[in-house]
Amino acid sequence: MNIRDKNGRSLLQDTSKEELKSAYEDLDRILKRVALTEAPLLHLILNNLFLYDLWILGKISKWKEKHSAFLEKSIDDLTLFDSLFPFANLKWMFSDYCFPEILSENSKEGISGKGLFHPLIPSEFRVSNPLDQVLEGNIVLITGSNMSGKTTYLRTIGVSSILALAGGPVPASRFSLPVLKIHTSMRNEDNLEEGISFFMRK
């Protein structure tokens, strides 16, 4: 299996199953010997007779020297996998999500989307909305009657932006944005499940 990151670097390509198994078996043997130091009397005898602590330290140093190079890369790769799996699972669970387009720094386009919806509102109650392109430096006014969904719409854009910039799928049929920062200030709490808006809270 050949898995590559976005830069084309192969992941876990230089690590064999046998190497990983050998490294962790060696470490397990060392840890079992370290466990003997938890018994005070036995620890005292071993230290007096064999300088046990120094012997253990030598074992750990040799293990690190032998395995650290490939283990460090393997752990970095596994960390990347661990961060990506939740997003892959999210897309698998919700097929109506889409993967966004992250615009380049030189792009003159702004944030835009189609079919955006709030991920916490059940499908039978939610309403999808578009987001016309908003260029850098422009201001958009969201108007509407009380409890009509203005705050939910803003939250939808914010949540979609955060998911997109984290590398995940977004609740929309299409979404593109440049790299940006999210700024918000909301003191009152609404309740989407009960249909209680910020206006009703106030």
UniProtKB/TrEMBL annotation:
Keywords: ATP-binding, DNA-binding, Nucleotide-binding. It holds the Pfam family MutS_V. The keyword ATP-binding applies. Residues 140-201 form the DNA mismatch repair proteins mutS family domain. One of its GO terms (molecular function) is ATP binding. One of its GO terms (biological process) is mismatch repair. Signal peptide: none annotated. GO terms for cellular component: cytosol. The keyword Signal does not apply. Coiled coil: none annotated. InterPro entries: DNA_mismatch_repair_MutS_C, MutS, P-loop_NTPase. Gene3D superfamilies: P-loop containing nucleotide triphosphate hydrolases. This is MutS domain V protein. It comes from Leptospira weilii str. Ecochallenge.
